[in-house]
Amino acid sequence: MKVSLRKVMLSLAPVLVVGWCVVAWLRRPDEAERRWRSRSRAVQPLSSAPARAAVPAPAGVVPASVVPAPAAPVPVPAAALPTPDPESPVTGSEPDTVVVAGPFPGSVRSLADGSAPTPEYTVKAKPASKLFHSPDSPYYRRTRAEIWFRTEQDARDAGFRPWKRA
């Protein structure tokens, strides 16, 4: 009697699949093992961390515990700061605020936190979308401006369009 390899494989395939499922089911962790595994992966406090053997520092290296902390920054009075050049970016109404000109005519860059450099700039704009938000826009408060304009007309002149509901 001659048996082909194909018939043997077809007859063994269901047995192998069922056997694999049984082994996988038997190897699955029970609830106690799951809890143990999750506890062992949790971050442990430093006091319970295993102690490491002290390794001597190479010659000429000062341990971090010996290096003094950096001194607190010393405030510099506004009078000691250099006066800006009239040819450079425009200075704001406060003596310590510098308004940096934006990439578009009549625009200025926002401060690091997205706020206006001076109170006279009230129109927020984003160069990527070429949209601007005036104070009456419903999204004005939540929009983080990249550039600011004084008026809506300045924003229009620079090629921006007002925000409109779709």
Short overview:
The protein is of the alpha+beta class and 166 residues long.
In terms of quaternary structure, the protein is: single chain
Structural class: alpha+beta
How large is the count of helical segments? 3
Give the termini distance in whole angstroms. Answer: 78 Å
Query: Biggest sheet: strands, sense, closure?
Result: 5 strands, mixed
Helix-strand topology string: HHEEEEHE
Broad shape: elongated
How large, in whole angstroms, is the Cα Rg? 34 Å
Low-confidence stretches: 91-95
Mean pLDDT: 74
The amount of helix comes to 10-25%
> Per DSSP, what share of the residues sits in E-state strands of 2 or more residues?
5-15%
The strand line-up of the biggest sheet is 1-4-2-3-5
The total count of strands amounts to 5
Q: Key features?
A:
166 residues; alpha+beta; 5-stranded mixed sheet; 24% helix
Note down, in words, how this protein is organized:
The structure is a single chain. Strand 2 and strand 3 (131-133) form a beta hairpin. The protein is α+β, with helices and mostly antiparallel strands and 166 residues long. Residues 91-95 have low confidence and may be disordered. Strands 1-4-2-3-5 form a 5-stranded mixed sheet. 24% of the residues lie in helices and 9% in strands. It is built from 3 helices and 5 strands, in the order ααββββαβ. It is elongated and about 100 Å long. The chain has helices at residues 5-27, 31-41, 152-157; strands spanning 107-109, 123-126, 131-133, 147-149, 161-162.
